[in-house]
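Lecture 7, part 2: worked example. A protein chain together with alpha-D-galactopyranose.
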Amino acid sequence: MKIMKVLLAVGALALTTFSCKNEEQKETGEPMINKGSAEPGIHKASWGMFDNREVDLYTLINKNGTTVKITNYGAIVTAFETKDKTGNFSSIVVGFDSLSPYLQSPPYFGAIIGRYGNRIGGGKFMIGKDTYTLATNDGENHLHGGKKGFDKVVWVADAYVDSIPSITLGYESKDGEEGYPGNLKVSVKYTLTDNDELRIVYDATTDKPTPVNLTNHSYFNLTGDVLKTILDHELQIDAAAYTPVDKGLIPTGEIRAVAGTPFDFTAPTTIGSRIAQVPGGYDHNWVLNNKGGSLAHVATLTDTLSGRYLQVHTTEPGLQFYSGNFLDGKFINHTGNPVNLHTALCLETQHFPDSPNKKEFPSTILEPGQKYHTETVYKAGLK
Ligand code: GLA
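Predicted complex, written out as C-alpha cells:
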C-alpha cells in the first residue's frame, strides 16, 4: 500500500506533517469515491479558502465502505455514510457538499464546539476573585463558544492511515478569545474503525485556568432522509436524572429524577410519543449514570424504517439531547432537501451547561499543567 508523506504549512501555526494514501486521490473536489469499490483509507480534496487559509475535505473509508467526511473548517463532520437494512449507503448526519453553506452560520451542523459546549448564563463566570465576561450570542447568554467559536475557525489537519484511517485537527485559541482566559491548545482526533465506530478523542492544555467543555454537534437522522422526521426514532439514555432549565435554557441547578416524566428514556422510547409534553421540545442535559471518566455505553438511537442503530459511548458525565427544535428549513441538506423542524437530533456528550456558575455541577475548569482528555464513540450498526 502506497503511503504519501506531505509537509504542509497552514496559517500562523507551524509546519504539520500528514500522510495519506495516494490511490484514487484527487485534489479536484469532485466526487472521487465509488462506494462499491472504494479502497479503505483517506482521500483528500481541496474545498476552498477561509480567512486566507486552505480548507480541505478528508474522506475516511473503512473496509465495510462506511464513510466519514471531515473538513478542517470547524472540524466539521459533513457526512457519515452507513448501510441501511437493504444495503444502501446514505449519510445519517446532516451536512453540505461544499464549504459555502457552512459559512452562512448553520446551527453548528457537525461541528466541534468550543471552548464551551452549550450555555454560560449571562455570559459571565468567576474563577477565584476574577470575573470574566464572554461574548453573548444567545440573548444575554453565551452559547457554544460565542460569536466565533471553534466551529467557525480553520483547524490544522494531520491525517494518516495506520491500520485504520484517522485525522487529528489542531487549534490554538488565544488568551482573551471570545472573553476566555488563557491560551488553549486543542486537538481533536477522529478515527473510523472497521466496526463502524466514529471515535472522537479530545485533548487540551492551557496556560491559565479556563472553562473547557468540548463536544461534537452532529445532527442525526438515521433514515438518511431529512424529508422524514426523527419523531419515530427510538431513544434510550442511561440516565436517572436530568438538569431542568429556565426560560433561557440555563440549568436551574437542580438535578431532577426522570422517573415519571417525559424525560425518562431509561427504556427505549419513541421520541415523538411525549415530545408535546415538553414545551419547545427536548433540549436538555441528561445526568448520565456513568459519572464520567471511563468510557461507557450511555445511549442508543434506533430507527425501524432503515434498520439502523447508533450507540453513543462516552467518558463524559452529561448528554445534551436536542430534538432539532430550532430547525426551520433555512438550510438545504446535501440531499437537496430543507432541514426542517425535528428532522434531525443531536446527542452532544459533554459536561453540564453553565457549570462555571454552578458549584454543584462537576467542574469544567482546566488548570495549567492538567490535561483535558475526553472520548466519545458513535457506533453505527444494523439491528
Ligand atoms: C444546542 C442547544 C440548543 C441550540 C442548538 C443549536 O444543542 O442546546 O438550544 O442552541 O444547540 O441551534
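Residues 107-108, 118, 143, 249, 283, 320, 322, 326, 346, 348 surround alpha-D-galactopyranose (CB under 6 Å). Residues 11 and 53 are 6 Å apart (CA to CA). Keep this in mind for problem set question 3.
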